[in-house]
């Protein structure tokens, strides 16, 4: 038994990275507990395991005293001297009390301890591996699903994809390969539990880092992301290098880079806009593809009033307010959109201090968008507060 145990400990140390000493300490503790339980003993004992000799012995530890009150824990000085005349008061005497059939109990206990320690070690290794990958992207394989969750294999463990983290325009089938964003890694009594998402804005950010080398190496930075998963998203990008076109880098040659991300997200539309520290420019860029005539900033309320051409109002607002809503979330500013005619009536446009330039020749009315947008009238106005759409992550 000891030879087999030694071989098992060496194998575990090599393959699982579990220290032999750690397992031996656990076995000794378990054997002490087994001895007390099986032989109805409560004294202080020590287990001596000699793997080389193939022996396991139990020793009762008793303190040398003048007067014995508990024979399970104490021994008289007279009795101690019969064992060794050098013993003195408060010394500890060890007496072997190994039961005859202790080997069978020891073997069974050792097996249980080793199995438990291996399981705990494997769970610890998996947890350590995945806790470092929180807020990262991984490729998984769909295994199975129930009404609440989809279970995605990440190799060593199955991750959970909740229904509210699934894209509404996707249907998942077993063996499908999908990219997921690790939102949370929890340590539970049953081992690590990993939650993933397909709707988190972080997934979009990580996909751009994979597809765009300039983002990966830090030349281009993603400043903010606003996403309505499965439908439309906006990201703002910036580069400190004036020779680098941040937006063009993300789009790629003939749109190849952004198209790869669109394909991964099953056709989700993505607007890439240039970030600016100036809220006037940033808000105007964020409302792309709409053209903006002017942006009036209220710093105290972190709010803006945006003036757009009359025929661009529906485009600026977007279907069901989506374009304005995403722009507000992207910039972190409240956005109140007004048509040019209404702004002139209110006396807030034009302004001499306007910082935006507007070229009529650059404006092309989005006819397809307006024809398909039955929810909005060109005379509508909309006010969007970015705080109303912050997602709790």
Automatic annotation (TrEMBL):
It comes from Niallia oryzisoli. PROSITE patterns: KH_TYPE_1 (PS50084), S1 (PS50126). HAMAP family: NusA_B. It is found in: Cytoplasm. Participates in both transcription termination and antitermination. The lineage of its organism: Bacteria, Bacillati, Bacillota, Bacilli, Bacillales. Belongs to the NusA family. InterPro entries: KH_dom, KH_dom-like_a/b, KH_NusA_2nd, KH_sf_prok-type, NA-bd_OB-fold, NusA_N_sf, S1_domain, TF_NusA. Residues 135-199 form the S1 motif domain. Gene3D superfamilies: 3.30.300.20, Nucleic acid-binding proteins (2.40.50.140), NusA, N-terminal domain (3.30.1480.10). Monomer. Binds directly to the core enzyme of the DNA-dependent RNA polymerase and to nascent RNA. This is Transcription termination/antitermination protein NusA. Keywords: Cytoplasm, RNA-binding, Transcription, Transcription antitermination, Transcription regulation, Transcription termination.
